[in-house]
Amino acid sequence: MPALALTDDDVSVDYRDGTYIGSLSARTPAPMPLVMAVLTDFNRMTDFMPGLTSSRIIVHSGNQYQIEQKGKISFGPFSIPFESLRQIEIIDGKRIISKSLAGSARRMQSVMQVQALESGSQIDYRIEIEPASWIPSSLGINFLQHELAEQFNALGKEMLRPK
């Protein structure tokens, strides 16, 4: 299995009542412990995530984190700066639940499930975002599809980078 090579079409996005709902599934040859290590490497994420200019752990207690991130997402000629403060909980070493506490989105929550396979790992992701400012739904759908594909491809490359 090669590194993740998601296209925008591999990401499903719907728009309902002001909320964008995105989901994707991907497989990587990386073993589950390495996948989880990359997904939770919050202090190093600026090294491998496109558009992320700042990422730091504010609070860490057990399996719970508060993470502050800043950056800019781009799609074609459009770019949107963002910042977020999120509460993240890791459940059973294979599920990551994230909820926005403050930032550019009015509301954001996501769930990521990682499953060990015989030859790698399966990642299933779902996110709901209610932007703080209005974005035409057709543009928002394309924007989110592109951004999620780009982010997960970057994560996939980091999972397979020689250590």
Descriptive account of the structure:
The chain has 163 residues and is an alpha+beta fold. It has one domain: Alpha-D-Glucose-1,6-Bisphosphate, Chain A, domain 4 (2-Layer Sandwich). Helix content is 20%, strand content 52%. It has 2 helices and 8 strands. Strands 1-2-8-7-6-5-4-3 form an 8-stranded antiparallel sheet, with helices on one face. α1 crosses α2. The radius of gyration is 15 Å and the shape is globular. The two termini are 19 Å apart.
Task: Chart the SSEs and their pairings.
Elements: E1 12-16, E2 19-28, H1 32-39, E3 52-61, E4 64-75, E5 78-91, E6 95-103, E7 105-117, E8 120-131, H2 137-160
Antiparallel strand pairs: 1-2, 2-8, 3-4, 4-5, 5-6, 6-7, 7-8
Helix pairs in contact: 1-2
Question: Would you summarize the structure shown here?
Answer:
The chain is an alpha+beta fold and 163 residues long. Helix content is 20%, strand content 52%. It has helices at 32-39, 137-160; strands at 12-16, 19-28, 52-61, 64-75, 78-91, 95-103, 105-117, 120-131.
